[in-house]
Amino acid sequence: MFADYHMHTYLCKHATGVPEDYVDRARALGLDEIAFTDHVPIPGGYDPGNRMRFDQFTDYLKLIRTVAARAGLPVLLGLEADYHQNTLGFLREWLPAQPMDLILGSVHYIDDWEFDNPAAMARWKSADVAGAWRAYFQRIGELADTGLFDVVAHLDLPKKFGFRPRDSVIREIVAPSLDRIAAAGMVIELNTSGLRRPVKEIYPSQDILAMARKRGIPICLGSDAHAPDDVGHAFHAALAWARQAGYTEWVRFRNRTIHRSPLPDAPAQS
Ligand code: ZN
Ligand code: FE
Ligand code: FE
Ligand code: ZN
Questions:
Q1: Which ligand is nearest to the CA of 6?
Q2: How remote is the CA of residue 227 from the centroid of ligand 3, in Å?
Q3: pLDDT at residue 268 in the model
Q4: Which of 37, 168, 213, 260 could potentially form a cystine with 78 if both were Cys, beta carbons 3.0 to 4.6 Å apart?
């Protein structure tokens, strides 16, 4: 019924446990499919502390394929890839040739500001909040235009620490990016990690999700697990979030192709 399409591994240097633990947790919760989507390696020094080295990429493939062979449920292979001026050249060359089931596209930086890092949070307090949101969603629109990614991860990530403009301003900022996501045929994820952050809300907001539904943008589900206990976190809440916005289906992936699937009737355990 439930597929967790956003899980990390220790190779990214800020996740704990081994992939087998994530699989065990998924099976204990009754998830029927999972995807590992670790942070993409980027040669050349982009945010090296938060990702595998480029020469570890074959280890990543081996790690996931080994665990998949013994998992007892489908384990998809994916990546979370950062859209940024310093990653785009590499991603354009390298990413399309990789044997992936799905590729999440993320924006974690506005230029040199890692706006979702608690260590860089001070800057929010003196920031032009609406201006930061505008800069972020401009980049999300560019991400969609590249055609390199399947899913927009944690779409309204700038809300993480609770800094957000008025709803009417957010709607005006987000609308053009959603148009570009729809035009690209992309999916957005319901990412439950927001519930574990100061904002205590699923990404994206109910407002944005309803705007996405009006544009026919499909959804998928992810916990953004960086520890085994995060797997499948609050998926019953995500299901309710999807229904509230008017969704009746979400999607599964194989080989970067979307398959539509109805929302389940029963709430998940967890
Ligand atoms: Zn991470
Ligand atoms: Fe991310
Ligand atoms: Fe992630
Ligand atoms: Zn993430």
A1: 3
A2: 11
A3: 47
A4: 37
Residue 222 has pLDDT above 70, yes or no: yes
Tens digits of per-residue pLDDT, 108-154?
999 999 999 999 888 999 999 999 999 999 999 999 999 999 999 99
**Nearest ligand atom owner, CA of 225:** 3
The ligand with the least distance to the CA atom of 37 is 3
Supply the pLDDT for residue 253: 98
Task: Quote the pTM value.
Answer: 0.97
Residue 34 alpha carbon to ligand 4 centre in Å: 15
Task: Kindly identify the ligand whose nearest atom is closest to the C-alpha of 9.
Answer: 1
State which residues have CB under 5 angstroms from ligand 2, the bound ion: 106
The Cα-based distances of 74 to 67, 162, 239, 253 in angstroms read 10, 36, 21, 11
